[in-house]
Each structure stands twice: as structure tokens, then as C-alpha cells.
Design a protein that fits this description.
Number of helices: 16
Number of domains: 2
Radius of gyration: 27 Å
Order of helices and strands: HHHHHHHHHEEEHHEEHHHHH
Oligomer: single chain
Helix content: 40-55%
Distance between the termini: 100 Å
Structural class: alpha/beta
Strand order of the largest sheet: 3-2-1-4-5
Length: about 400
């Protein structure tokens, strides 16, 4: 009887081992072992360093910029080589990530090109985006100071003819694949699933603040109110300079520094939105035009961001927390690469693709406080005065 039981155990063990042997996955696929011979990183990428224009088109940045970024984050991308497989070089991880951000190609497609495992590509992208966020956020998004706000306001007046302006604010929906068990949290008014990118842009299309990851169903005004920026502005905790007279005019007295946004945002002394309605007096139409002109800066910034990093035009198929990291990394690299001398080319490219949105016409809701109404009326008066008007505004309204 004992021999029969032992025999049955031996047969069961044999069948189990046989099943496990069939299911065992290769540690490194035979095709991927030849990545040094045929992989894109060791051939195409190496050749691209000899052609500056093609390198810029492929990676959306030049070789020197890649080397500098690698010097900042390379330590966090390094993994130990084992007896079973050789680790992926940090520079190859960065190359795969930049290609993913620049094109939005699937992890499977990139895996075949670079002769890497699909999970290795996914790991490299997430690892690199987190490293960019950790190592470059502080330098590209420094804590604001009074001097910084004054410099932004001065440039806004010089370039976009809006005084005492801290920046243009707006939200952008980034489409993602519907997360499991999320219900309608990520379902937005465009009938897609998304996360929200809230951003404040300066006069040169650089972001001074970003918040990524709010549910797609949340309105821009709701995202702003609960954001770190909204709470800090309400608590007067961002070193915003004291009220200052408008350029060339002291009639209105000291005026607060404000951001500009569309009708989705609340009216505050530190945040101006358009007058509601279509049938409004001409001087209010003038204010709406001037505000819209300044507000379009953030729309152009979004256009440049998505023109450079085409992943933002795809339906990102990763978990929401990884999507947050991808979008944040794209914003950091946007600031790192933004050059005022090249901005117009990117804006024109975005406009050709219809990525810069027209001014919002449907205005309503969101009542503000009395002080905010007074600030808006004084700005309205200023734009119609000799000191505040621009020569072409009459033709635009």
C-alpha cells in the first residue's frame, strides 16, 4: 500500500514539473539577446548623433541636451548586471522614454524596435519619468518669489498688453484608457476618459505651475479651487507682490497682481475672467478681447507641449498613477527645452494641426466677490484709456 502511495506521489510530482517546465518563460528572449547586433539603440540612434536635424526630429531634442539630462538622472536608471542577463544602459532607457513621449508608440512597438522585453520598455518609461520628476522638478519649477512675479508681469505687459499679470491659467484633458473599477470618475464632458493637467503659463509659454492627475469629470474651476495653487493664492502664501499702479496710469490707484483664465474659473481679485454674455457694452467687449489675448498664451503652451510630445494626442494605456508621471515629465521637459527664439515655430505647427483652441465664447456662472468685480471694472476702464489702449483693439471688437 505504501509503494502505491509513493508511486502516485511520484507521478503527480512529475506531471507538475512537466507543466511548470512548459509554462516557464525565457529570462531573455533569443531575439532580444541580439540587440547589440540589430537593436535600434546600437545602430539607428548611434547614426542619428551624426545628423543634428534628424536627431532633433527623432528625439525632440539634440544630443547635448540628452547628455545633460542623463547626467542628472542616470544614477536612478542604473541597475546591476546579473549572471542571467545584462542590465539595460541608462542612456538606452532614456532613449526609449523620449521616443515614447515623442510619438506615443505602444510599448510593444518600441520593444520590437529596440529588441527589449515589453515589460522592460514599460519599466524603463516609468522609471525614467519618475527620475525626471524627482531630479528636475525643482530646477524647472522653482518656488516663486516677488522678483519672479514682477518679471513675469513685466513681460506680459510688454508682449501681450495685459498689466500686473501673473500668468495665464487653464486645464487640459489628457486621454487615458478607462481604468479598471473607476466608474465615471475619469469620464469627462468630451465622452472620453481622462486626467486633468492644470497649468499656469508665463508670457514665454513656460509653465510656472502644473498639477496633474485630477479626475476627468472635475471642472477646471473645481480643480483650481482644490489645487495647491488655488489654496496658496487664497491664503496669500506665494510671495505675490503688493498692489501696484497700472503702467503709465495712477488714476485707478494700486491694483492687485492677477492671473487670467476663461469662464470656467472663478472671479477673484487674483484671477480675472471675462464678462459673461454676448450682448455687453463695447468697453466690456474690449476687456474680454484683451483678456482673451493674454489667456491664449496658455493655450499656445499646451499646443507646443503636445506638438513636441505626441503621446499627449494618444489614449495613454497605463495606470492613472503612471499617466500622471508621464504627463508631469513631459511638462518638465517642455520647460527645459522651451526657447523663446523657437516658440513661434512650435506655435505655428500646433495651429496647423488645430491644437491651439479659439477663445471661449460661452461665458456664464461663477459669481465673484465685490472686490473682484471692482478690479475687473478698473481694468476695463484702463483698457479704454489713453495709457492702456492698443492701436488695433478697435478693429478686433
Amino acid at each position: 500500500m505504501v509503494r502505491v502511495v509513493d508511486r502516485r506521489k511520484a507521478i503527480a510530482l512529475y506531471l507538475l514539473l512537466r507543466r511548470l517546465r512548459k509554462r516557464r518563460r525565457l529570462w531573455v528572449h533569443s531575439m532580444n539577446r541580439r540587440r547589440r547586433e540589430y537593436g535600434a539603440y546600437y545602430h539607428l540612434v548611434a547614426e542619428l548623433r551624426l545628423d543634428r536635424d534628424r536627431h532633433l526630429n527623432y528625439f525632440r531634442m539634440n544630443a547635448e541636451q540628452i547628455d545633460h539630462i542623463l547626467s542628472l538622472i542616470g544614477g536612478q536608471l542604473t541597475r546591476q548586471t546579473t549572471n542571467y542577463r545584462q542590465s539595460i544602459e541608462p542612456k538606452q532607457r532614456l532613449a526609449v522614454t523620449l521616443r515614447f513621449l515623442g510619438t506615443g508608440e505602444s510599448f510593444t512597438s518600441l520593444a520590437f524596435q529596440y529588441r527589449l522585453g515589453i515589460s522592460t520598455v514599460a519599466e524603463s518609461v516609468h522609471m525614467t519619468c519618475r527620475a525626471i520628476e524627482q531630479q528636475m522638478m525643482g530646477s524647472q519649477f522653482p518656488r516663486p518669489t516677488e522678483d519672479m512675479w514682477r518679471a513675469i508681469a513685466s513681460t506680459f505687459w510688454a508682449k501681450w498688453n495685459f498689466p500686473n499679470c501673473l500668468g495665464a491659467i487653464d486645464g487640459k484633458h489628457v486621454t487615458i484608457v478607462s481604468p479598471a473599477h473607476s466608474g465615471s470618475l475619469f469620464f469627462n464632458y468630451k465622452k472620453t476618459f481622462s486626467i486633468v493637467l492644470l497649468a499656469l503659463a508665463d508670457a514665454d509659454y513656460r509653465f510656472t505651475f502644473v498639477q496633474v492627475g485630477d479626475f476627468g469629470r472635475t471642472s477646471d474651476g473645481g480643480v483650481f479651487s482644490s489645487s495647491a495653487l488655488g489654496r496658496a493664492m487664497e491664503a496669500k502664501g506665494l510671495s505675490v507682490p503688493a498692489d501696484f499702479p497700472l503702467p503709465g496710469s495712477g488714476v485707478q490707484g494700486p491694483m492687485p497682481y492677477t492671473m487670467v483664465g476663461d469662464s470656467a474659473f472663478p472671479l477673484k481679485t487674483y484671477l480675472m475672467r471675462p464678462f459673461p454674455g454676448n450682448r455687453i457694452p463695447r468697453w466690456r467687449q474690449m476687456f474680454n478681447y484683451r483678456l482673451s489675448r493674454a489667456r491664449m498664451v496658455v493655450e499656445c503652451a499646451f499646443g507646443i507641449l503636445s506638438s513636441r510630445w505626441r503621446v499627449l494626442h494618444t489614449r495613454i494605456n497605463v495606470k492613472p498613477e503612471n499617466a500622471d508621471s508621464i504627463v508631469t515629465a513631459a511638462c518638465i521637459l517642455h520647460n527645459y527645452l522651451t526657447n523663446p527664439s523657437e516658440n513661434q515655430r512650435w506655435v505655428e505647427e500646433a495651429e496647423e494641426r488645430g491644437e491651439v483652441l479659439p477663445p471661449v465664447r460661452n461665458m456664464g456662472g461663477n459669481r465673484g466677490c465685490r472686490e473682484a468685480y471692482d478690479v475687473r471694472e478698473k481694468l476695463c476702464t484702463f483698457f479704454c484709456s489713453i495709457e492702456g489702449r492698443v492701436s488695433w483693439q478697435d478693429n478686433m471688437v
